[in-house]
C-alpha cells in the first residue's frame, strides 16, 4: 500500500467508526501535511481517493467535509421474519430451484439494468492483462503439461494460491488443495463428499440461492440458521440445532456474506470452530468475496481457526479477477482425497490454459494493485447506491452497509411483495433479486438484494428512481 | 481431401477388404499413373502415405507390396467369459472405483511407458496453433462476453459444432446443444438427469471404467450387456433385459468403443433406436472417438437414427484436438433443459477462454487437415503395435483390430492374471490397463487394453518385448 493510500485509509477508518461525523470538516491540505509530516501532494492524492470512494466531498469555501454518509441514516434490516424460537428450527425439503431459474432466466437480457445480477461488471477486471498472461503461459507450456496438469493442477497456480493464503493468515497445505471449475464445483463436490441423499445440512437464512439449488440437486434437507444482518450466523441456534438434529454438514459464508454482507468477528469464528469440533461436523466454507474487503484488513476465514481439519475452504477468482475463466479451489481438510476423487468422476479437471493464465497473472500481473482499485471502486459505488436508496426509496426502507462484496440487502416496508416488485421492475427493464430466492422456506418476501458492482451511470441512477416509485406504489 | 489422399484411400480400402492380400504387389507408379490418369507425383505421394500408415512397404526389385498386415494373423478376441444366458443378466452394485483409482494413481509417473494411459500423446495435437487461436480470440472478445458466454456458451463454438455435426450426418439443433467441461461432465449430467439413486442402468461389458465410476458415484446399479469385439452391443440381450428389468437409462459407445474398438453397423444402430423407442429408454451416447476413424467414412452416431429425441449425444475435443482445455458438449434431445439446469447447479459453465480458442481454431486453424494427419498416424501406430504383439506375445494371444481410436483390446491365454501382470509390468516401468477395471463384475481377468496413441519409439518396442516375456512367464 502506498503512503497516500495508507493516509486515506486512516481517515476512512475515522469516518467509518463515527469519529469524524457527516458534515464535519476534515483537516486542510496544509494542516494535514504539516501535522503528519507528509507532502501536500500526498494529502491531495489521499483526499482525491476518499472523494472517489464517496466518503468526503469538496464544498465551496469549507474545503473537504465528510459526506452525508448514507449508511448512517438508513437503519439496518431487522429480518423480523427470520426470528424463530430455537425449537422451531427444523429441516425443510428444498424446492426453490424453479423459482430461482425463473428469476435468473428472465434477467439474462443484456439490456436490462442488472441490479439483480450475481456478477459485478466485467469492466472491473483486468481482462486484457490477463489475456497477455494467457498468451505467455501457453507459449511456455510443455505439451505434456496439457495432460499432466489435468490431474494435479497447474503447479505454479497451486503455489500462488498457497502463498496468498499464507499472507492472508489462512492456513492450509499443498496436500489438501484441489483446483476446481470455479467455486461452485468446489462447494458442490465438498458437500457431496460428506452427505448422502436425505441428510440434513445446516445453511444460512438467508443463503446464496445456488447453495439451496445444490442442496436440492443432492436431495438434501435444509436446516435454516438465522443470520444477523451484520454479525453473521446465530451461533446459539446453530449449537442448539447441532444438538437436537442429525446435521451432517454446515455450509457457511463467514465473511462478506451473500446476500447480507455480514461478517462474523474473529471471536465468533473461534467459537464456531469450537462448536464444530465438539460435534465433529464437516463444514463447507464459501469465501468467494474474501478479496473484496473495504478498509485495511481482510477478514480471516473460519479455516484459519480450525484445529481439526473439518473445514473445506472454497474460493475462486471469479469475483476478484476472472469471471468466466472458471477457476476456483478447495482446501478440503481431512476430506481432500475424497473430494479429489469425486472430481475425477465428474469433470476430471478445470481448464488447463485458464489455470496457467491465472498463475502467470498472479505472479506478474499486479493482482494486489488491481484489487486495491477494485475495492475502492466498489466502496464508492456502495455509497452511491445507499444515497440513492435514501433519496428514492420510501421511508421505512432499511439497508445493510457491508464492509465488502458488492451486494446490498434492502428491507422494504412489510407490505411490499418483492416477487411482484421483481416483475414490475423487469417490465421497466430493471432486474432485482427478490428475497424468497434466498430461502428454502421462501421467507424475506419484502426484501431484495441489489448489486452495486456496476459503474454508477445515469441509467442506474434512473433505475433506482423507478424502483423507488414502484415500491411506493404498493 | 486431396487427390493423392483419395487415391491412397482407394487402395487402403482394397487392402482392408482383402482384395489386395499381404505380400501382393500393388501397381507400379507408372501403371497406376496411366490407368487412373493421374500424375506420377500424385501416385508417389499416395504410396508414401500408405507406407507411413504401415499398409504397404517397398521391397527391393518388387516395388511396393502389401505388408504382412498383422491384424490378419492375430485372431479376434472371444470374450468367452462375457457369454451369458439372457436370464443370467442382472443388476450389479458398482464398486470398482477403488480398483480403478489404484491403477490410475500408479501410472501417473511421467517416466512410465504409458501403454495403460487413456490419453494419446499430447505431441499429436496442434497446441501452438491452438495457442494462437486463444490469443486472437481473447483479443477480440468483448469484456461482457466473459460473463454472458458462461450461461449460453460461446456462440461461434456452438455454430462450429453444429456445422460439423451436420456434415457428419448427425442431426441435432442449437436448442438442445449444451457446452460442457469435457465429455465426462456431459455424460455425468445426462445420466443424472434421467436417474435416481438405486436405479438400474444398462452399460456395456466391457465398459469404459469412468462410466462405471460415474454409476458408482450416482449410486446406480449396472446391468452389463455383452459387447461383441467388433460388432458392438448384443441387441438381443439388451432387448430381453429392457423387457425383464426396470432399466432407466442406457450408456453406450456405438462407434470406436472404448476399450474394444467395436462399431455397430448402421442397420444395428437403426435397430437399437427402434428398441429404445419401443421402451422409451433415455440413452446416453458417448461418441468421443468420432473423429478418429480410419478409412474414408466416419461412422454415423446413434443420434442420427433417433426419431424420438431419446438420445443424449455426448462428445468433446479432448481426444481430437485439445486435451486439458476441457471443452465438450451434449445434444440432450428432450432432456436438454434439465441437463442445462443441472449444469448451472454444478459448475455453471466450462471455461470461456477455452471455448473461444477452440471456436477460432475450428473456423481458421485447419482442423480437418490436422485430423487427416492424426488418423494416419494412429492407423500406422496400430499396425506397429499389432505387429509387436504378433512378434513378442505368446501364441494364443488374440487382439482387436479397430477401425478407429487408439486402443487395442488384447486377450491373453486364459491362465494369465492381468492384475498380476499390471503389477509386474509397472515394476518394469510399463503401464497397462488390466481387464477387470472395465467391468462392474470384474470380468476380463486375462485381458488388457493397450494404448497405441504414442509415437512408436524403441522404448515402446522394448516395452512390448518385456510385456511379452512377462506374459509368457505365467
From TrEMBL, chains A, B:
Similarity annotation: In the C-terminal section; belongs to the class-I pyridoxal-phosphate-dependent aminotransferase family.
One GO MF term attached to the UniProt entry: DNA binding
Domain (HTH gntR-type) ranges: 1-69
Domain of life: Bacteria
Keywords: Aminotransferase, DNA-binding, Pyridoxal phosphate, Transcription, Transcription regulation, Transferase
Database matches in Pfam families: Aminotran_1_2, GntR
Protein name, entry field: GntR family transcriptional regulator
InterPro entries per record: Aminotransferase_I/II_large, HTH_trans_reg/aminotransferase, PyrdxlP-dep_Trfase, PyrdxlP-dep_Trfase_major, PyrdxlP-dep_Trfase_small, Tscrpt_reg_HTH_GntR, WH-like_DNA-bd_sf, WH_DNA-bd_sf
UniProt-listed PROSITE patterns: HTH_GNTR
Position of the signal peptide: none
Amino acid at each position: 500500500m502506498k503512503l497516500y493510500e495508507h493516509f486515506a485509509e486512516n481517515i476512512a477508518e475515522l469516518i467509518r467508526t463515527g469519529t469524524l461525523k457527516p458534515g464535519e470538516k476534515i483537516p486542510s491540505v496544509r494542516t494535514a501535511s504539516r501535522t503528519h509530516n507528509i507532502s501536500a501532494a500526498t494529502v491531495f492524492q489521499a483526499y482525491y481517493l476518499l472523494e472517489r470512494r464517496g466518503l468526503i466531498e469538496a464544498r465551496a469555501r469549507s474545503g473537504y467535509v465528510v459526506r452525508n454518509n448514507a449508511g448512517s441514516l438508513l437503519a439496518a434490516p431487522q429480518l423480523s421474519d427470520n426470528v424463530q424460537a430455537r425449537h422451531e428450527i427444523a429441516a425443510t425439503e428444498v424446492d426453490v430451484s424453479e423459482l430461482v431459474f425463473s428469476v435468473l432466466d428472465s434477467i439474462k437480457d443484456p439490456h436490462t439494468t442488472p441490479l439483480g445480477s450475481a456478477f459485478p461488471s466485467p469492466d472491473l477486471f483486468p481482462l486484457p492483462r490477463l489475456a497477455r498472461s494467457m498468451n505467455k503461459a501457453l507459449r511456455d507450456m510443455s505439451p505434456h503439461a496439457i495432460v499432466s496438469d489435468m490431474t494435479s493442477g497447474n503447479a505454479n497456480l497451486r503455489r500462488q494460491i498457497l502463498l496468498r493464503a499464507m499472507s492472508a493468515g489462512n492456513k492450509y497445505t499443498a496436500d489438501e488443495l484441489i483446483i476446481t471449475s470455479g467455486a461452485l464445483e468446489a462447494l458442490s463436490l465438498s458437500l457431496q463428499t460428506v452427505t448422502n441423499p436425505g441428510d440434513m445440512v445446516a445453511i444460512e437464512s438467508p443463503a446464496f440461492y445456488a447453495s439451496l439449488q445444490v442442496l436440492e440437486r443432492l436431495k438434501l434437507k435444509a436446516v435454516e440458521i438465522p443470520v444477523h444482518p451484520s454479525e453473521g450466523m446465530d451461533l446459539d441456534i446453530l449449537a442448539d440445532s447441532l444438538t437436537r438434529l442429525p446435521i451432517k454438514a454446515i455450509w457457511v459464508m463467514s465473511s462478506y456474506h451473500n446476500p447480507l454482507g455480514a461478517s462474523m468477528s474473529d471471536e465468533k469464528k473461534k467459537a464456531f470452530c469450537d462448536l464444530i469440533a465438539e460435534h465433529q461436523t464437516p463444514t463447507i466454507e464459501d469465501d468467494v468475496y474474501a478479496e473484496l474487503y473495504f478498509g485495511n484488513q481482510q477478514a480471516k476465514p473460519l479455516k484459519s481457526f480450525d484445529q481439526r481439519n473439518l473445514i473445506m475452504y472454497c474460493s475462486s477468482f471469479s469475483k476478484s479477477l476472472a469471471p468466466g475463466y472458471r477457476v476456483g479451489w478447495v482446501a478440503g481438510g481431512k476430506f481432500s482425497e475424497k473430494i479429489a476423487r469425486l472430481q475425477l468422476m465428474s469433470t476430471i479437471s478445470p481448464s488447463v490454459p485458464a489455470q496457467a493464465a491465472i498463475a502467470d497473472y498472479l505472479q506478474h500481473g499486479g493482482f494486489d494493485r488491481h484489487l486495491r482499485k477494485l475495492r475502492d471502486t466498489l466502496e464508492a459505488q456502495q455509497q452511491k447506491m445507499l444515497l440513492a436508496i435514501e433519496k428514492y426509496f420510501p421511508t421505512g426502507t432499511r439497508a445493510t452497509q457491508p464492509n465488502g462484496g458488492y451486494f446490498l440487502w434492502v428491507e422494504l416496508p412489510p407490505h411490499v411483495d418483492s416477487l411482484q416488485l421483481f416483475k414490475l421492475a423487469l417490465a421497466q427493464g430493471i432486474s432485482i433479486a427478490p428475497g424468497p430466492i434466498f430461502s428454502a422456506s421462501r421467507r424475506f418476501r419484502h426484501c431484495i438484494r441489489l448489486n452495486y458492482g456496476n459503474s454508477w451511470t445515469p441509467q442506474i441512477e434512473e433505475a433506482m428512481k423507478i424502483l423507488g416509485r414502484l415500491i411506493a406504489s404498493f
